[in-house]
Amino acid sequence: MSKIIVLGSGMVGSAMAIDLAKKHQVMLTDRSQQVLDKVKAKCNSLSTFVLDVTNTKLLQSTIKNYDLVVCAVPGFLGFNTLRAIIEAEKNVIDISFFPENSLDLDALAKQKNVTAIVDCGVAPGMDNIILGYYNEKLKLNFFECLVGGLPKVKKWPFCYKAPFSPMDVIEEYTRPARYVENGHVVVKEALTDCEYIEFDKVGTLESFNSDGLRSIIFTMPHIKNMKEKTLRYPGHVEYVKVLKESGFFNTEAIEVNGQKIAPLDFTSRVLFNEWKLGETEEELTVMRVTVKGINPQGKEETIVYNLYDEYNPTTNTSSMARTTGYTATAAANLFLEGLFQEKGVFPPELVGKHEACFNYFIKYLEERGVVYTRTII
Known about the structure:
This protein is of the alpha/beta class. The protein is about 35% helix and about 30% strand.
């Protein structure tokens, strides 16, 4: 039994802590005692501790006696928190999905003799793991990931609920999308290149460009065509574009009745209730990962992995928490079991390239009802 500390007890952090507590001694931290009490009521074997990760000295002294740190803080805190963990010479699994480049901390992690597995969720996460695995099997020339978290009940006008803050969702809608076309990195506005795509159990969804390739732009530059697109119910993109083009996502403050306010702050506040996912509200996760390449026999092969996952009413665990969190807890367990011991910062594709690690992820998730189905064309 290992000692693990989980930083952040939001929807995903709490699901990870509960899952890890089945085999390990787990300390769950958050800046809110009220939030911690709520999670403790679900899993009495958890220990809890109020911690503000921006207090670097307190963070580093708190984590020093643990075998592994699992970081699930909000994205805007992620990079600095990860750096502080590495400086404290602690191994870490991170799912904070910060906008900075995690590979910038690779030299520091090697210097401190630390293993840091980052971006370890559903996407980024399992799509990278699948890509890393097949990059060892085929000479790849194409990668595509289509992914979205959606409410089961469509409520007009947005037909969308977010398992995290609207500000993080809006960031996805405003940050330029990078993808790779014919070996060149191409930058387009988010919400562009909309396509309608059919999915079993869901029907028609619309996909659009989003900046989801992250580390694989740097770790897999030999793959000539790579893109990631977000999925929503049809009609969502049009409404979001109206807000975007009308200035509702602008960050520069404007004056209203003598008060200065940034339109983005106002929009986030309004959308908070509109987009907030209820604690027991049913939602689902849809993902399709496609890789194409030349097999050892010289023939082109296409491999497609599909995921359809729903809210679990028995454990009251959202699909997004299950698909994201259990990928990270799989990484935590395989690391603690000695399957991956390299030092440095590792996006999931550099872990999934190892067959034993890839198989561990697939089996671990299947045991928790998160099932990826594979088709070879």
